[in-house]
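Students often ask why we bother predicting the structure of a whole assembly rather than each chain alone. The short answer is interfaces. A chain on its own may look different once its partners are present, and contacts between molecules only exist in the joint model. In this exercise we take two input lines together and write out one structure for the complete complex. Read the inputs first and try to guess which parts will touch.
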Amino acid sequence: MISANLSAIFYLVSGVLFILALRGLSSPETSRQGNFFGIFGMVIAVTVTFLSTGNFSTGFIFVLIFILVGGSIGAFIAYRIPMTAMPELVAGFHSLVGLAAVFVAISAFLNPEAFNLGKPGNIKLGSLIEMSIGAAVGAITFSGSIIAFLKLQGIMSGSPITFKGQHPLNAIILISIIFIIYLLCSTQSSNYFWILLSISFLIGFLLIIPIGGADMPVVISMLNSYSGWAAAGIGFTLENTALIITGALVGSSGAILSYIMCKGMNRSFFNVILGGFGATENESVASNKEQRPVKSGNADDAAFLMKNASSVIIVPGYGMAVAQAQHALREMVDTLKKNDIKVSYAIHPVAGRMPGHMNVLLAEANVPYDEVFELEEINNDFANADVAFVIGANDVTNPVAKTDPQSPIYGMPVLDVEKCKSVLFVKRSLSPGYAGIDNDLFYKENTLMLFADAKKMTEDITKNL
Amino acid sequence: MEIDPLIFRLSIFILSIFVGYYVVWSVTPSLHTPLMSVTNAISSVIIVGAIIAGLSGNSETVFNTSSIFGFLAIALAAINIFGGFLVTQRMLAMYKKKKKDK
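Now the answer. The structure tokens for the assembled complex follow.
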């Protein structure tokens, strides 16, 4: 058994290692080392906990068994999961953090003596408040992440689910959560604790159902943030530095990602959270839906255009992930490169279903990361490029965001694809993207539409090159 | 008058938020997905609370209501820790630089 002071110092060390783990992600070269710091920090935290409880009886064996069972499941998932399913995986993992926080809070509430928090029915006020906040945020994270998971997995429709009185209802529930925490603290009655958990689960569901599929990057980041705050709440209860530091890190990390994602769509955080993008704009969309001529081509035409180009910029989007076209795309690019054509990739911040989604898929397909550029880095290059190859992206290329103040996406940063000499658009149909608006780019003189499945079209082009 | 230990924890918390803020802004956007999976893994350090909860029973009764919740939380957090770190590892291994001799 080691002293409380010594274990507190070790917890601090593991907190610092977690900071270094995130710091490592500032560049791909240092990132792997960073991940090891993270693992090391975790090993220290777990070991110190064992040593400080000093309890190596039967219970200890069971702890090891549960770690082993959970660990094997986790390892199995980590090795088997396809990279395209990463958003679902992250959402699923967030739900587990949330649920774990809830379980720890329940355990602490039922048996506060084990945590030095007082006696059942007479828990220290501060601890009770921290515990309730941790439990409530954990419950919201859990049920919210489950909905996000179901939506991403396609089990639940990705379209926003809205009903009348939704926002007032949510507001009432949120206020009652605060009120119940107050009642819980003044009466110490376990009934209020269970009510608190139930309505927190409920509000988690209600908060996420009105948010549509393409807003998932914001939702996932937000839930990431929540899981951090839940951990921090529990950290305060347990008076554990590692948990407090980690909770704060994860909380601010998720918050920053949400901010970046919202900025990528030029929408305020509340606008996304309140849900139903485009719902009010539908009328104006319907009115200007005239039939305009488009030029469509086949793989042969596309191959001809690219063969005669000297530089090509590829713009991937969620459609590429759905079609699993990243490998076929890289093969096409390899062939282009053999013909001395310069190829680079342009990634919009909200392309895909989670922050960095496209980058992971391209990395999986062995695309070197120094050929992949962010919006600000590459946007000026479109004017000098010969061909833009848009695969599975739509709204993020729509020039209307720059020209039409009436458009719902006006002001959103977009890739200047229209400045290219010619644009190739791989798409299944002319249907509008998530924002529900027509893309002017389809009808431009220099645009060639390639109507097909992204993967099949890319393979066909490679054959024709 | 002595300062409540809560204030110290609060100080750590607030300072960590700032550390997190600056560290995360320096993360390159192409690594945002690994960032999410690794934050997931490290937030599962909540397992320390779960372990204390799981060990709260005495030697005769390992399982009581409180410790069962602890054990369940241990399993959930372990899924996250192993899953999170390993999947991050797997992703990061894929990020390669351009080969020069080609």
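Check your guess against this: Chain B is about 70% helix and 0% strand.
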